[in-house]
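pinned: reference chain
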Amino acid sequence: MNLTDPIFTDERKAREFLEETRWPKGPVCVHCGCVDKVYRLADGGKHRDGLLHCNNCDGSFTVTTGTVMESSHIPLNKWVIAYRLMASAKKGISAHQLHRTIGVSYKTAWFLCHRIRESMRDASGGPLGGSGKIVEADETYVGGKPRKGRPRMSRMDTKTPVAVLVERNGRARATPVSHPLAGVLKRNIAANIAPGTEMHTDEHKGYRGVAKITGGPHRTVKHYQGEYARDGVHINTVEAWNALLKRSIVGAFHHVSPEHLSRYCDEVSFRWDHRHVGDSERTIAAIKGGEGKRLTYRRTSAQSARA
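pinned: its structure tokens
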């Protein structure tokens, strides 16, 4: 799959690609799960293109039914190229860049980006780590500086904290949280870390007592003393994830509103989790991730200015 592939320019080819991706063994009714009583209705005329019908439950559907693409009037080839661009851009692609690249309005590009980020959200719910595994924990802050002329404030007043967990050689999970961090960080670890996990953190007070929560060892590095690694104990991996998020915001998004920050974190985590595969495999994983998800959020003019 390269950018000259017909699936990026021909809507019929894009539909065939999406159907093959979602149903590699043939169409499956999205309403009842039937396989052998599903047939395709003729394109054109009184039927919309790509419509399938199930004689078992008398339901009709297309390849976009039950996905983030459902009810969208955007041509499918533009959906596919948007998936490809977002899955392959290491530091992300802004809605403005997407609207210029694929020839849609900015509002449409904004629509695409957030629904594709919903596809990238890890819906497995499974915990990170486990016995014999190491998870690094850290926190980062996202937000702008006070405007010129305003009194100087601390980052607690101007930025949104994000609790980040990264399994060594594994997955990442980032959650925007609120102040104060002391109890929030431990609750986040309790909700996302499997029992017996070895935790690596810095000396932040919010991580004190983590060993009692996970039941595994808790090792720290003393950043305040200039120590960043000791006998395999470090948080360099999670700090690398933090750097990717910051570079995505500075280089592509420029500004991220707190209400949408979690989706940007999901996007960065998705590319991190699929970093060992090629762009084509990452694109297919993102498309498959959109099944069973809907994002019906409607954007207001006030929110548009902040997105």
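why pinned: Residues 176 and 262 are 6 Å apart (CA to CA). Confidence is low (pLDDT under 50) at residues 299-307.
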